[in-house]
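Subject: mismatched residue count in predicted assembly?

I count 433 residues in my input, but I want to confirm that the predicted structure covers every chain. Input:
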Amino acid sequence: MGQGKYTTVSIPRSLYNRIKKLVEETGFKSVSDYVTYVLREVVAMHESERYEEPFTEKDLEEIKKRLRALGYI
Amino acid sequence: MLGAADEYPAISIGLREAYDVENIGYGVYSPLDGFMVYEDLENVLMNMRLSSDLPWTMPIVVSVDEDSMDFGVGDEVLLSYMDRPLAVMQVEDIYRLDRRLYAERVFGTTDPSHPGVYNVFREMGEYLVGGRIELLDTVDNPYARFYLRPMETRVLFRERGWKTIVGFQTRNAPHLGHEYVQKTALSFVDGIFINPVIGRKKRGDFKDEVILEAYSELVKHYYPKDSAVLSIVRYEMRYAGPREAIHHAIMRKNFGCTHFIVGRDHAGVGNFYGPYDAQEIFREFPDLGVTPVFFKEFFYCRRCGGIVHERICPHDESNRVRFSGTYVREAILEGRDIPDYIVRPEVARVLMSHPDPFVS
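Triage response: the counts match. Full output below for your records.
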């Protein structure tokens, strides 16, 4: 089984140099590792902000009925 | 659908997969909507992520042997547990299981004395079948009174006005070490979700009904009103240590938790993992969507006169009484009293009064 697939994203050279310097003092193996880590954190934050509960008003009423029957509310 | 069951080829699944079917169907394993195809499994094994890049550490797979495979890609098959159809699977992929790679990546070992490795080498079939499933039925649940689906816990938390919820996984009857971990975490959030795992257990473990009864007593007598929710999850442990700790956190996120407690040797077995490996691994997942809360071991200190931990107790080992499941088990079997600084009296009464509290 092979490794995952990768693609290239452009960032300013000056930013690359800043990260490269930073990476030398951290546990990250490369600039790419660092950028991937930071982007995943930011992307997940934006995704969670857009998250909406998947249930309808009808679902909600039925769920509350069951929760009441079980003594949870 | 069930009336036409005979028309479908079927895969006979075990209890582990039956629980997986339920967890996929009810959203405990969200975003999974079926058993893993090759691309997802490959990513999980190599990168601890699904092919969509979302964090996922444990393979969720169903296996078959070649001689029982009377279907192909594109077919619909029934997933049956003890002849009871639980789901229809749209077969999207059939691929060979690489047992060695699977064991090395997931469990970090190919030692057959590891129960997860044993399962991979001795119990799983040679092919894996992947595809979306549609839930038809679930295995009988003797603890339905304690079972809530993720949609239900999310509504419950909202009804209680909780914005921050810490999840606690357990397979044991509670002693004060557990209680202090839970309450320390609870000090910083709105509510705690105590989520015992119900499933196949080892000989000598407390029976599920004993664990539930014991926790009910603990919550009733020692937790502020409406600060704790006790509800089970049906799941078979893999004992994959660090990887499984991430999986446990993802399940609790799906139940609506914002935080998840990770203790010492979480999901470990024997000496296969370091005591805090399951905490270290969380550093690799900045996008998990649930915040891990790490704890070291709590113990009773005679000099401090209370339950403490390493960072707040200056006294030496001779003053410390470690919480031990083995100690509690032996005390029950010998009919000895359990000190109330080890187990709450109400909980001890449940454990002592049960005619046969252990799995035999």
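Chain A has one domain: 13-69. Marking this ticket as 'not a bug'.
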